[in-house]
């Protein structure tokens, strides 16, 4: 049994992002590797050694050589040096399997794709403050207006219809950085199918449903505490017809579901969480390696769950032709950026480049 010494995740979700966060955070519990699944290498002390650093064997070899130099003549010294070189050449350096988290903060864009796998109907940005011991997550409503370059002007359309000869995720990242002043370091995307699989891998998620959800006439979630399967969890996080504030009401429900998913993942235990992450890693489209995800998960899991805060982009309802859209409330958003997303005390609403439909 080999002990993992590095404790340096979300999160956090998508249409499946809500459970994705739970999955990432949960893997942080697993500090001992009991077996080697799939093609993942065992995590050993040697594997955790930073690349380019001297190993214990190298240091001991050097000390022995220096001792020999002080007690013997030049001939013995040459012999000791040759011996040192011979021993050092046998040492095999390995890159760390867990990739260390560098820098004070890491921002991850998490998106959930709809049934067509084209529209990003869930968009969240998670800011991991490793040194501060907290994670702040902001949800961006799918109807947020970002410009006339898209048919409806909504942000959820950017991924499917990029306009600047980029791939969809690259253009979405650019818009979030340029218009919303939120740095994007990495991204993760999950389809509805992947979301269902992840929830089912957890054994379902226990949620207290405050009132009956009529997703369709024959797809109903009744009021009360219950464990939702992947299918029913999808109904819950996609439902929006019954909310007076539409997509904003759905976002609130998604955030409640995410907190429940985090609790479920913690209760599942170390081995179970490691297994489900490895089994479902292929369900996620991301530029994060498995090692990087694991390191972020470990860092986030060391935080108290109350240190994970949820926010929603403040917006006004507006119209873009025949489409109902949401325009950003710049003043309120600037306050969120200053207080929770590292924008700095001198940041003002005038620095935002969000767009207006009219």
Give a quick rundown of the structure.
This protein has ten helices and 14 strands. It is α+β, with helices and mostly antiparallel strands.
- Overall pLDDT: 75
**Shape designation:** globular
Beta-strand content estimate? 15-25%
Straight-line N-to-C gap: 63 Å
Low-confidence stretches: 1-72, 84-101
The sequence of SSEs as H and E is: EHEHHEEEHEHEEEEHHHEHEEEH
Rg from Cα? 25 Å
Arrangement of strands in the largest sheet: 11-6-3-4-5-12
Largest sheet entry? 6 strands, mixed
Percent helix range: 25-40%
Structural class: alpha+beta
How many beta-strand segments?
14
Q: Enumerate how many helices there are, as a single number.
A: 10
Outline the fold blueprint.
Elements: E1 2-3, H1 14-27, E2 32-33, H2 56-71, H3 74-88, E3 105-113, E4 120-129, E5 134-139, H4 168-180, E6 186-190, H5 192-201, E7 205-209, E8 213-216, E9 219-221, E10 224-228, H6 230-238, H7 247-268, H8 270-280, E11 284-286, H9 290-301, E12 308-312, E13 315-320, E14 323-328, H10 330-340
Parallel strand pairs: 3-6, 5-12
Antiparallel strand pairs: 1-2, 3-4, 4-5, 6-11, 7-10, 8-9, 13-14
